[in-house]
Design brief:
460 residues; Beta-Lactamase; extended
């Protein structure tokens, strides 16, 4: 048997190892990058919801007066209690605060405006609490102070990561602007993401390990059939290969990816190669099947990302996407806010509060059956009205309020089942943008909620 200076199996082995390294590296880096991006995007959406919800309860003009005078107004105190309630309900929030960046010096560069505290820190161990007008010493370095100043003078949420003595925080900061559009402070929330690093590293190790093991397994199997030099009738293998190419070209049916068996009398390299190629086609079919299955899982995850886990209706992320892609010339926005959720939670427990939220969501979906329904806050829903629902809004609103009254007057229901809500709506008849329409609907809803509390209209 002739010995070659460059045996084919050696050349194939070297090429296969290089290919394995490239594929494993590419797949691992890509998967880890996608996973990391997905995790951080999810946290950014979570932080955005917290900031939007908190910011919607801040009266910027009143806050500007408090900052200038260093005196707390009634609205300021109400907002502070509201922020305390938020931080007490979310264990992963390190800090929820508002600051006024003063300069970019290394010290005394930031003034405290708001600082949410947990119950223990607010009322028992108050030594570290921050109050309106407190000037930082060295808590913020000059780089962070400059970033906060840029945020206050900008118009969008900025995300950044910080490493502190307590761990790793992912921070979102958004400007608070008064009625003239001038930035007066920065609202920020720090979310504890210390565990994310270890999770990503663990995912990376598992991902790389699986990829390498599968790759090595494939290469090992491949080499079983390439132990000898290819020396005999190549035409048989070529004929089978050409037929396979002819059948598989532009063929999307994986069941047709079959390699025609090559009968070789001699137990040599061609027989091994034929068996290896047959095995490889089966692996390809399985790999394609796995890709299809993975695509279905991705689609499912996208569905989860745009829907509220508690009620099943669409969430704030879906609302923003729908509003940004609106093509309807005539539409309306309805804002519905559940009444007495805090009382239900405090009196009967959050599970009963969840029952009330779900019940309201079901009622809204049933009445506004032709329009998309979104849960945009803890107790707040939005409906984008189209066509029939747009034309019949007032009938639908009256129908919903009649249902509220029937629930309240039903002696067989538990308190948390007697759901009521304030409803406000606005329409884009004047051609204004979706933000203006939402704000008018939100104002109408709060007006009706106030009238309910004052007894000017029935609160059911």
């Amino acid at each position: 048997m002739t010995k070659h200076k460059q045996p084919l199996n050696r050349a194939i082995g070297i090429a296969s190892i290089i290919f394995l390294i490239i594929i494993c590296t590419s797949l691992s880096v890509t998967n880890i990058a996608l996973h990391t991006n997905f995790v951080y995007t999810d946290y950014e959406n979570y932080i955005t919801e917290i900031l939007d919800y908190t910011k919607s309860h801040i009266d910027a003009d009143d806050l500007k007066k408090c900052i200038d005078s260093k005196e707390e107004s009634d609205k300021y105190k109400e907002t502070l209690l509201f922020m305390d309630d938020i931080i007490n309900h979310y264990n992963d929030i390190h800090y929820l605060y508002a600051i006024l960046p003063l300069n970019t010096n290394e010290t005394e560069n930031v003034m405290s405006v708001f600082s949410a505290e947990r119950y223990h820190d607010r009322y028992e161990d108050t030594e570290g609490n921050l109050y309106l007008g407190w000037i930082s010493d060295d808590e913020f370095d000059s780089e962070t102070a400059k970033l906060m100043m840029d945020v206050m003078n900008g118009d969008k949420i900025v995300f950044f990561e910080e490493t502190t003595e307590w761990g790793i925080d992912y921070t979102g900061a958004v400007p608070i602007k008064d009625s003239t559009g001038k930035g007066i402070a920065v609202l920020a929330v720090d979310i504890d993401i210390t565990f994310i690093r270890s999770t990503i590293i663990k995912y990376a190790v598992i991902n790389v390990s699986i990829t390498v093991v599968l790759g090595l397994a494939f290469i090992s199997l491949f080499f079983i059939w390439f132990r000898k030099y290819i020396i005999d009738p190549l035409k048989k293998l070529e004929h089978s290969a050409v037929n396979f190419v002819d059948r598989s070209t532009d063929n999307r049916n994986i069941d047709n990816l079959e390699f025609e068996h090559v009968y070789v009398k001699q137990d040599n390299e061609i027989k091994s190669l034929s068996s290896a190629v047959e095995t490889m086609t089966e692996d390809m079919k399985k790999y394609v099947s796995d890709i299809i299955s993975a695509e279905k899982k991705v689609a499912y995850m996208r569905e989860i990302a745009t829907h509220d886990a508690l009620t099943g209706v669409r969430n704030k992320t879906a609302y923003d996407a729908t509003i940004n892609s609106l093509t309807e010339k005539k539409y309306g926005i309805v804002v519905i806010d559940l009444n007495n959720l805090k009382t239900i939670n405090d009196t009967y427990g959050h599970d009963k509060g969840n029952i009330a939220i779900i019940k309201l969501a079901n009622m809204i979906c049933e009445v506004f059956s032709k329009s998309p329904v979104f849960r945009i806050g803890g107790d707040e829903f939005a409906v984008i009205l189209f066509k029939k629902d747009y034309e019949n809004y007032f009938e639908h609103r009256d129908e919903l309020e009649v249902q509220f009254e029937e629930l309240v007057n039903n002696p067989n229901l538990e308190p948390w089942e007697k759901v009521t809500a304030a409803i406000g709506a606005a329409f884009n008849e004047d051609g204004d943008d979706s933000t203006s329409v939402f704000e008018r609907a939100d104002q109408e809803m709060y007006k009706r909620k106030k009238e309910m509390k004052e007894g000017k209209i029935r609160s059911n």
